[in-house]
Amino acid sequence: MTTQAKAILIDITRCVGCRACEQTCKQIHNFPTDPEPQLSDTAFTVVQERGDRYVRRMCMHCEDPTCVSVCLVGALQKTSLGPVVYNPDRCMGCRYCLQACPFQAPSYEWTHLAPYVKKCDMCAERLGRGEMPACVEACPTGAALFGEREAMLAEARRRIEENPSYVKHVYGEEEAGGTSVLMISDVPFEKLGFFMPPMYSLPTLTAGPLRDTPTIVLVGGSLLAALYWITQRRQEVAAAERNHETTSPREAGTLGKDPSSGSVGPRVGRS
């Protein structure tokens, strides 16, 4: 049986700002419960006020994640169910994922002696047990729904068609090539502070450079090694020449010299 990718649908018009999603997320991860204004290593989902609207922020779990494409060691992976998950045992701390993410979702444990990247994993373990993400389960108003991605898209389109107050757009349907978190709103997304990425998969911008990186490293390393050998060889030759110039006159002065008498010339016997 083919696994169907899941998605979260967030209806901004139904969010009342209760922050139950925030608190539930913090509790299941044993994070401090104090509200935070933006995503961090101790806040995987936050609710931000935008005028009279409340907007959820979280990892968007892209269909073709840029964070995964730039990770050199495979610490980030997109699962068949939809979540983008992180394996700290593979992470080498390069933080390329922080720079690559268009939604600024990953955070870093800057205050830890042994820091890791931290981000929402859409409750991947719960999904594996057939449960829904904790933040969706905690929502008391139905502002967040969870199900198969195609079903969530269909529900979003239905609401937009039935209610003319909605913006005629499902955020996340095509943004950055599509995401596993979808949003609908009655206020233009730009006015709510949403980043508007291009409507195509962003790893297409990095695939070329990343594909060429091993070749560049190999060729560049070989050239540097060759230059180092040439430089060292020149230094050795120069040192040998200087040593030869210094010792040759002294050696020349001892030719034909009688070591015992100090005289120069062949030794002659007494008559």
Describe the protein in words:
- This protein has 2 domains: 196 residues, Alpha-Beta Plaits (2-Layer Sandwich); 46 residues.
- It is elongated.
- Helices cover 35% and strands 14% of the residues.
- With 271 residues, the chain is an alpha+beta fold.
- The C terminus is likely disordered.
Query: What CATH first level of the largest domain would be assigned?
Result: Alpha Beta
Assign the CATH topology of the largest domain.
Alpha-Beta Plaits
H and E order: EHEEHEEHEEHHEHEH
* Distance separating the two termini: 118 Å
Fold blueprint:
Elements: E1 6-11, H1 20-28, E2 45-50, E3 53-58, H2 66-70, E4 76-78, E5 84-86, H3 96-100, E6 107-108, E7 117-118, H4 124-128, H5 134-138, E8 144-148, H6 149-162, E9 181-184, H7 203-253
Parallel strand pairs: 1-9
Antiparallel strand pairs: 1-8, 2-3, 4-5, 6-7
